Amino acid sequence: MKRLAIANQVRINLKTYTMVFTLLAIWILFGFLTNWSFFTPQNLSNLFRQMTIISFLAIGMVLVIVTGNIDLSVGSVTGFIGIIAALLQAEAFAKLLPAMFPALSPLTIALLSTVLTVLLCLVAGGIIGFLQGAAVAYLGIPSFIVTLGGQLVFRGGLLGITQGKTIVPIEEPFKAISQGYLPNTVGLALVGAVIVAIFAFFLWNRRQRKTYGFSVKPLGVDLLKAGFFSAVVLAYVLIMNQYQGVQNPVLLMAIMALIFAYVTNNTRLGRYSYAIGGNKEAARLSGINIRANVFQVFIFMGVLCAVTGIVLTARVAAGTISGGVNYELSAIAACVIGGTSLMGGEGTIFGAIVGSLIMASLENGMSVMNMANSWQFIVRGLMLIFAVYVDVVSKKNR
Predict the structure, then answer these.
(1) Can you name the residues that pair with 247 across neighbouring β-strands?
(2) CB neighbourhood size of 384 (10 A)
(3) In the prediction, which pLDDT does 1 show?
(4) How confident is residue 15, by pLDDT bands cut at 50, 70 and 90?
(5) Are 384 and 333 in contact (CB under 8 A)?
(6) Sign of CA dihedral 272, 276, 282, 284
(7) Max Cα separation, the chain?
(8) Could you tell me the pTM of the whole model?
(9) Above pLDDT 70, what percent of the chain?
């Protein structure tokens, strides 16, 4: 009986186990092939910074795919928002703010420019999500068609605005969004707070499950899990502190991941999204407003595209015409590798983050090995096919 229970748990969590073991196998393989230079603090720092760009998109894409939809425009929207950010930084606010506030210091002007740029870009992303979400939810146009059209529209808008030119310069405070690091002491203080929060969450979750009559695992098991996650966070901060510290975009990604993990697990929007993707007709008969839910999901996706565009522009310190190219494919691949089902109704934010890390690890490791670009595309494509195969096998077992 005990063996049968273990076997059932393995089948149920097949994708999770496969995902974790795949990541470990990729890291060990690249460590061996690169004479362990893959594990240097500098390279690991670059790896995690590299994964953040796709992670922001993958976080939003989880909700989109869970509802049974798809968004092929996220790469073009990211590039378009990135160009808007660069234009605001290099031309609009660089000229407007000194003229309006001549008494302010250059540093204050730069900070004000950064804040206004971020706010306007987030609004622009929300408007784009609003328009595409309205077309999908209320006009009844398939999301594939709407976002494919959006991909072309925003890529064309990007090329039209830039006229094929790179837009510079970018203010230093804005560049710090993606290029900055937390001081070592701040990173250690932060990890202490995170460890306390992890243990508090597990204890709170146990109390909630008892309150509502759900089964509770032994206390030792929950404490062991909390200790494991705490050890992972502590190890990450200690390794990053050996280079320059915790990266600002990684901290921002962690915050976004926690927010959207809460949304997916603890709000009506998240729970209804899974219900819609699992069985749309049953969700409708249950009284769920499918149109409003899908509409909100696309608005969130637009905002996350804006966040990605901001981080991308801050990272390269310029607005470029190649920004966001093929990002939609990487985001979808990260979700699928992370366990999100293309059939809808299944997927997690944690899985998308790990999927993004797997994709970034492949790209980083192959770059360290100086592998030809042609082979890099082939390997990433095979990884995506393998992830979909695992999804199919998992569904058959269930």
Answers:
(1) 181
(2) 17
(3) 45
(4) low
(5) yes
(6) positive
(7) 78
(8) 0.90
(9) 94
**pLDDT confidence of residue 2:** 46
The residues, ordered by sequence, that sit 6+ positions from 130 with a Cβ below 8 Å of its Cβ are 295, 298, 299, 302
Q: For residue range 250-298, list pLDDT tens digits in order.
A: 999 999 999 999 999 888 999 999 999 988 889 988 889 999 999 999 9
Angle at 236 between CA 170 and CA 307, to 5 degrees: 35
Structure tokens at 392: 């199919």
Question: Where do the domains of the chain lie?
Answer: 40-180+247-387, 182-246
Lowest-confidence segment of 168-172, 173-177, 208-212, 393-397 by average pLDDT:
393-397
Q: What backbone torsions phi and psi does residue 181 show, to the nearest 5 degrees?
A: -130, 150
Confidence of residue 12 (pLDDT cuts 50, 70, 90): very low
The token pair at 81 is 């928002």
- What's the Cα-to-Cα distance from 161 to each of 123, 156, 166, 291, 302, rounded to whole Å? 19, 9, 11, 33, 20
111 has a pLDDT exceeding 60 = yes
